[in-house]
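Researcher: Here's my situation. A collaborator sent me these components and asked whether they could plausibly form a single complex. I don't have experimental data yet, so a predicted model of the whole assembly would be a useful starting point for our discussion.
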Amino acid sequence: MYGNDFGPKITADGDAGDDPALLDGFQRTLDAGDRIEPRDAMPAGYRKTLIRQIAQHAHSEIIGMQPEGNWITRAPSLRRKAILMAKVQDEAGHGLYLYAAAETLGASREELLNLLHDGKQKYSSIFNYPTLTWADMGAIGWLVDGAAIVNQVPICRCSYGPYARAMVRICKEESFHQRQGFEILDTLSRGNPSQHAMAQDAIDRWWWPSLMMFGPPDDQSPNSAQSMAWGIKRFSNDELRQRFVDMIVPQAKILRLALPDPDLRWNAETEHWDFGPIDWAEFFGVLKGDGPCNEQRIAHRRGAHTDGAWVREAALAYADKHVARTAAVA
Ligand code: BYC
């Protein structure tokens, strides 16, 4: 049950259509900085954009379990294994909150998973890269979860209530994830020369893909302007990317690891770190399905879904039995 999620729906599908009074109510809610809730009338495009973004976000969380899940059996100690298992489980939980948020907009989890499995919805480009060494667990935590935090903290103020509220808890967990990644790298960086080199190699491979996570440059981002006007996005892709670089550079110094960008330098005028050009051809190639692990990730996801069919069937049978028993008692 959400804040104002009671009473009859305003229109049959909940969309404002072109009814000026409903559209005006929607706009006034946005202008006042209040939240749009599931039963509020909303423009069809707002609903569609949210379903697209929340679904992509949910898919990223569950596909994102794969690169790290790959290292659970090979973690270097029991402590590391327990931490990594907890982190991967958190990601499953994030997927769950997000699919639940999308359900409040009328898109079922089943429908969204089918779209993912059929290649009709995206997930984050970052999860199409392989995890080759243990240091990659550090790089994912520090850089990938670091980028996720920078991107997601503003979504806690997103105009759509269920998405914003889901994000509050997710961000708390992401902060812990980033710290564990930093701690893995810090340990390796202080270790012997080959451990330090392993950490550096991971940073060399994950740095540029992490910058790509923020999405295309603003002048090639078709959704940004409308999403910002609707309060779904609070900052542009480039603004958040810059914020991430500014946050990471001093942390890399503490880790005694180098960022693989010869153009990285402090700009005293802008008071930001300038960085070199991003290979957008690589990014768009990964989006098209040509990344190193795209096929593997989707094949594994489809297989997990098929293997899990009996769990869904058992849960549904149990729910049906529960409903029948409750009805018999009443
Ligand atoms: N990868 O107009 P734009 C995590 C797509 S999970 C793939 O700028 P928008 C974690 C974009 O969707 C992190 N696709 O789009 C989990 C759009 O697609 P359509 C996931 C990308 O939506 C486990 C098209 O390109 N975080 O952290 O305004 C373990 C044009 O782009 C990417 C979220 O999902 C990309 N990197 O902005 C560890 C956060 N970038 O229209 C960690 C929520 C863009 O062709 N999402 N596209 O279907 C957002 O904030 C926004 O959707 C984006 C893109 C900033 C990603």
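Model: Some features of this prediction you could bring to your collaborator: Residues 52-53, 56-57, 60-61, 64, 91, 122, 124-125, 144-145, 148, 151-152, 212-216, 221-224, 227, 233, 237, 287 surround benzoyl coenzyme A (CB under 6 Å). The first strand starts at residue 265 and ends at 267.
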